[in-house]
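Q: Hi! First time asking for a complex rather than a single chain. Here are the components, and I think there are two in total. Is that enough to go on?
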Amino acid sequence: MAKERRLSKETFLRIAELAGLDTKTPHMEELYPFVQNVLQGIAPLDELDLTQVEPAMVFIPGQEQ
Amino acid sequence: MNATELCFLTAGQLSRLISGKEVSPVEVAEAHLARVSALEPALNSFITVTGEAAMAAARQAERDIMAGRYLGPLHGVPFALKDIYYVAGVRNTSGSRIFDQFVPTYDSTVATRFKKAGGILLGKLNLHQFAYGPTGENPDYGDMHNPWDTDCIAGGSSGGSGAATAASQCTLSMGTDTGGSIRIPAGLCGIVGLKPTYGRLSRHGITTLSWSMDHAGPMVRCVEDAALVMNALSGYDTHDPTSATAPVPDFTKALTGDIRGLRVGVPREFFEVPLDPQVEEAVRTAIELLEALGASVTEVSWPMFHQATAISSVILMSEATAYHRDLLRSRSAELAPSVRLRLEAGLFFSAADYVKAQQARTLFNRQSLELLRQVDVLAGPTLPVAACKLGSAEIQVGNTRQGVIPTLTQFSRPFNVNGFPAITVPCGFSSPGLPIGLQLASRPFDEETVLRAAHAYEQATPWHQRRPIGSVII
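A: Yes, that's all I need. Here is the structure of the assembled complex.
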């Protein structure tokens, strides 16, 4: 079972501030539950054993981007 | 043939008439532009109509064809582009008033290749803002309406492409697909939508949503037209670093009608989630028809299907937020509220979360490839429901109520995570008369197999011949 990913309101506001959002607006009251819901939605990733698994991001030196 | 009948023709049918000089590109363009004008109050499919340029291009096409300079099956065929495909000199809003006056100075590769093929651009199509949503609701340019019931969503994000093609305002259109944005509106509007393999079509000159999950693809009224578009647009592009060098076949040669021996896998996980009973019945009936046509059908297991949404969410949201970071800083109040929330939420993923999701993506892709060694095609619903009413925050799915975004995207997202080709074809209608879609997917760069399977199914059924004719659609 995926463990819950929860952010306290305090942590949420701190991260929002560090990310450059204006934490003094009423909009934060709408964003906080939305973020909670999103983070809960990605909890299934915590069920996976990713030991020795390379991320699907390929870097090839010298390849033009 | 009257104007309405001209608009109902597919690209394949039109091309045979145009190349045989039985119909002029000028009358075809005139008929379509008149239909765009007549139906826009009901559908709101277009943001920009390029009427004068379209007629000029049609007259040129007529001169060229009469002089023996026929370019191929798309010559003289009217098409439209989702308003994130750059066309030099034509505004590109990406569905946001922030870019209402932005005019690109160069063409997307897709636009360039359409011009080279002689297609007639009718205009730029409405979309969910920045391609970031599955409903086709847009507060800046107005919601798109489903031609089968204009109180219902057209789907998104390529909602204008879905509605315009289904209503025959254009012969074909292009959408983009990052979490289902071709297949969702195609499924809800009753047309064919193909998300090719990642890298098969160039992303150069298309407003980005998520670099590693964006796909360009055709939205058309029959599988043959999808093959014609793929022939014209596929191929390596030096402007796109993710463009594939895979050889490009003649996709129309795949349309044999023969699927004897095709191994179709039906993931049991597709039917373990809530499904509208009418959708389930239509899709199961469609799969039975594939078997009757000679395919062998087996139930398979795809355990990581249940992680696809989580993998997709982290990658898509992180990349979309990174791309739109400047807008978030300076113009967040001007964003559509739902788009603003999703972009801001992307700020709450850590770099470690993103890498973890990419690791999970590696596992997911390995499992996908293994599955498609056992079978040739995966089959299932495109969506668990038919179109819901505009303005819905939740959707009834069987006995449950669910959020709109996860409901509409759950069957499409896996194929953005693995980048495999996936197509939707109409497979029936709900009792209120709303389309239901069957999704077929195959291995990387094997569009031929999905096209062959989809075409065989289509030709054995009547769904693609039905038109959304009603009180607002003529």
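A: DSSP finds two helices and no strands in chain A. Let me know if you'd like any chain examined more closely.
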